[in-house]
């Protein structure tokens, strides 16, 4: 009796097994038995791509050994849908090369990617499944919904990039010198009246008179330096140069009698003018000048120098005739300070008299200009008139700052020497053209701080959020805040965002939403509403799905 009962039970189990697997169509009817999971549960766009991994779980006795299961992932969005390649599974008795799911049950996972299109921020991912029995296709009654999406928060990044302007060497005060000299007879310190009527003395006198009338120039000080030639004894020359200093001072008083100079007057003496001697010999055509210069380099003692030079009897006569008389002198040096154009004047010059401006004035003026056209005018004139790389660079940057990418490209092409500023601005151009590879290559060649910042923009666009956080550290702007949001460092994000603008408010709203602060979400979205484009975006943003009324 027991034997018969066992046989009956065995047959019943076998029958149940066969029944459960005998009809592939039953797999469709019992679709609710299949478990589906998706990672992530909320889809996210990274580097213009949506990636998701789904897993299907099949219970025991569900998968028919002669069935093929065709799974088509479909992203359904506002505006259409797009399907990923079909994923196929097979039963144990199918000889194809798909993953096998046994009668005992099992799991299968597949990763899908979708290129982002506008509208996909409001979407969902579903699986459309059908079972094949030989040539017969039986569709499952309804698709499996896997995940909602898609999060496009990274697209809040500011992608304009930061340009780099080069500086100028404009000086508000310039130093000038005007010089003349009196010559003395050998061993004499007296100045004859006719000496003061010489052409060079009169020119010096007239110059000082003109300075007094010049609103931009002023004599800051005057130096009188009296010399003796390096022939003769040191004691004699010291006394002689001192006397010449006194008479030179008296002569200066006469020269400036009509137009007195109130600036400080400094009188100094040089007993033996070896420096002047060396300079005159070096610039002369004296036959043995190299030998003389060698003596000067070999000996520092004045007496030894004079002795050795006197021993060159033929040369010394030439020196006595042509060089030494020029060293018996007193120099008058007027130190002039020129007050350059002030900021307001520079601005006016650009508008009314740009042709008189030098390159430094144009570069400085360009930095002062408030309106784009005037700024471009200044840099363009400096670039065209002086072919100055700084001006060309700044013209490029100004074009970029005003959305004129084509003009910026044309300007940058005229750069003579490619430097760190060039590569940063070339990278910004590539960034604007969405040529991110070229942008990264150019930023890598620049050591400017802004180039590091700009490369972080590309990092965000390419999904390298941690790298972006590192590069943006301390910038204190919305891009830094966004990088913190993307790495879920919400408190740091809130601290980094300083702007009161709608764009910053949008980021604050995301922070509030992730923290579950509904009141703050509403408050920040009220600011966002001031921007039509951002407000429209917020209506479909999955970040605010559970707060949407």
**What is the distance, rounded to the nearest whole angstrom, between the alpha carbons of the first and last residues?**
71 Å
Roughly how many Å is the radius of gyration? 44 Å
CATH superfamily of the largest domain: Tetratricopeptide repeat domain
**What share of residues are in beta strands?**
15-25%
The name of the CATH architecture of the largest domain is: Alpha Horseshoe
Structural class: alpha+beta
Number of domains: 3
What does the largest sheet look like?
11 strands, mixed
Contiguous low-pLDDT stretches (5 residues minimum) are 1-21
User: What is the CATH class of the largest domain?
Assistant: Mainly Alpha
> What fraction, in percent, of the residue positions are helical?
40-55%
| Broad shape | elongated
**Number of DSSP strands?**
15
Question: How would you characterize this protein structure?
Answer:
The chain has about 550 residues and is α+β, with helices and mostly antiparallel strands. It has three domains: about 1-150, Immunoglobulin-like (Sandwich); about 175-340, 60s Ribosomal Protein L30, Chain: A; about 345-545, Tetratricopeptide repeat domain (Serine Threonine Protein Phosphatase 5, Tetratricopeptide repeat), CATH 1.25.40.10. Helices cover about 45% and strands about 20% of the residues. It has helices spanning about 1-20, 25-30, 200-215, 235-255, 275-280, 290-300, 300-310, 315-320, 345-350, 360-370, 370-385, 390-400, 405-410, 420-430, 435-445, 450-460, 465-470, 480-485, 490-495, 500-515, 520-530, 530-540, and strands at about 35-40, 40-45, 50-60, 70-75, 80-85, 85-90, 100, 105-115, 125-135, 135-140, 145-150, 175-185, 215-225, 265-270, 330-340. The strands form two sheets. Strands 1, 2, 3, 4, 5, 6, 7, 8, 9, 10 and 11 form an eleven-stranded mixed beta sheet that branches. A four-stranded mixed beta sheet has the order 12-15-13-14. Strand 13 (about 215-225), helix 4 and strand 14 (about 265-270) form a beta-alpha-beta unit. The radius of gyration is 44 Å and the shape is elongated. The two termini are about 70 Å apart.
